[in-house]
Design brief:
Elements: H1 3-15, H2 18-25, H3 29-43, E1 48-51, E2 54-57, H4 59-86, E3 92-96, H5 98-103, H6 106-115, E4 121-125, H7 128-136, E5 142-146, E6 155-170, H8 183-186, E7 190-193, H9 199-210, E8 217-220, H10 224-231, E9 236-241, E10 253-257, E11 263-271, H11 278-293
Parallel strand pairs: 3-4, 3-5, 7-8, 7-9
Antiparallel strand pairs: 1-2, 5-11, 6-9, 6-10, 6-11
Helix pairs in contact: 1-2, 1-3, 1-4, 2-3
Length: 299
């Protein structure tokens, strides 16, 4: 028996629904179902009776619910009491790729701090691939990432926004006036790619290879500002998200859509087996609601 299992069971009991419990706790429905099943197997009892999609506690389930609620409440009080005594509260560790930290995160974090000043946050910049690995080994609590990864389903995840990759060049570059560009158009250009742990890099290299071209990568960098300074010279091109080009009107840089488009999903990931603290649950809920109200890309 684990605290996660008890939390999943109690939430399903309160919501009378596995679907609603999964939505509230930001986990999958199978995760809730498995937790309930494991509790029933461990204690040899039946916790719920089902009438259609409605869950109802059995007599054994009602007794178990009272005790489980007491345990969770006691654990929360224990954590609150000793956190208060020590005045040490572990910060929420959030990973984010450099590109997303430029456009996707500042306003969110500012709004979060204004509403929840009591929750400390440590922000770490990593490419999406490494950020996911660090979530898996518990170095990070949650990460905002490019979700176009083959193993993304091994994490709990939620999509926050849709975007697309654009090819960025200076306004006086020979390709600047094009409505869209192909890998053939870009193959001979001097290209600046992000570091190896970038999902975008993997997608773009695969696109070039599928089209029978080899990208002319002359530099790798994780620094957006530095990369754009090189692009402004007119000799280089780089790849950014379309949402970042809103601020390019006065920067001598233009973003050109790719043909065919390279579309991506931006979202949050967190470990499936991890206990979700109150602070983390607050952040997950706040972030999802924030981007519903302030969509990065109009759908």
């Amino acid at each position: 028996m684990t605290l996660n299992q008890l939390r999943y069971f109690c939430t399903a009991s309160r919501c009378h629904s596995i679907t609603k419990a999964a939505e509230e706790l930001y986990v999958t429905q199978p995760t809730i179902s498995m937790a309930i099943r494991d509790l029933e197997i461990e204690f040899g009892i039946s916790l719920f009776s089902r009438k259609g999609n409605q869950l109802s506690l059995t007599q054994e389930g009602e007794s178990f619910y009272k005790k489980a609620t007491y345990i969770l409440q006691y654990c929360n009080e224990l954590q609150a009491d000793y956190s208060s005594m020590s005045r040490i509260k572990p910060p929420l560790r959030i990973g984010i790729p450099p590109m997303l930290s430029t456009v996707f995160f500042p306003e969110l974090l500012t709004a979060f701090h204004e509403k929840h000043p009591e929750i400390a946050v440590v922000l770490e910049e990593y490419g999406s691939v490494r950020a996911c690995n660090l979530v898996q080994d518990d170095t990070l609590d949650v990460a905002l990432v490019n979700m176009e990864q083959y193993n993304i389903d091994k994490f709990h995840n939620t999509v926050l926004a849709n975007d697309q990759v654009v090819f960025c060049v200076s306004n006086d570059h020979r390709l600047a006036e094009k409505k869209s560009v192909t890998t053939k158009d870009m193959a001979k250009e001097q290209l600046i790619f992000f570091n190896a742990d970038s999902v975008q890099n993997q997608i773009l290299k695969m696109r070039f290879e599928m089209d029978g071209h080899t990208p002319n990568i002359v530099m790798r960098s994780s620094q957006i500002y530095t990369t754009l300074q090189f692009v402004k010279t007119g000799k280089y091109g780089c790849f950014l998200y379309s949402s970042m080009t809103d601020n390019f009107s006065t920067s001598n840089v233009t973003g050109i859509p790719l043909n065919p488009p390279v579309r991506i999903k931006i979202g949050m990931v967190w470990k499936k087996s991890k206990y979700i603290s109150g602070d983390m649950l607050t952040f997950l809920h706040f972030t999802r609601m924030y981007y519903k109200e302030h969509p990065l890309i109009e759908k």
